[in-house]
Amino acid sequence: MPLNSSAKTSEKACSPSNASAASNINIGATTDDALHYLQLVKDTFYDEPAKYETFLDIMKEFRSHRINTAAVVARIKHLFSGQPDLIHGFNYFLPTEHQIPVHAEEEVAHHADSVN
């Protein structure tokens, strides 16, 4: 599935530009991982493009050092509320101490919604 120019631009927003930003992400994460995750977020919010744009804005603010990892986590937790798959995916890029807990009942509810 090809990415549009917004997603390509967001690749830069999500990839670290220096050592301090790199220390806040999973070292094993690749550019392909980030691009696939961006597409997942975009696909999830296909009917709510403002949420996808908010996600990109959060990543841009982080990359430009206007917000720290804790602020990113707080915003993402709120933005992705009710979307455990997105939270699990986002956790892949976070250091363990910043990962967002996903409660079992959220996953069950989300699965039930996706089946119906």
Automatic annotation (TrEMBL):
Keywords: Nucleus, Repressor
Taxonomic placement: Eukaryota, Viridiplantae, Streptophyta, Embryophyta, Tracheophyta
Chain positions covered by the region annotation Disordered: 1-22
CC annotations in GO: chromatin; histone deacetylase complex
Pfam family of the protein (one): PAH
Localisation per UniProt entry: Nucleus
One of the GO biological process terms: negative regulation of transcription by RNA polymerase II
Gene Ontology MF annotations: transcription corepressor activity
The name this protein goes by in its record: Paired amphipathic helix protein Sin3-like 5
Keyword Membrane: no
Record flagged with keyword Manganese: no
Gene name as annotated: LOC103701957
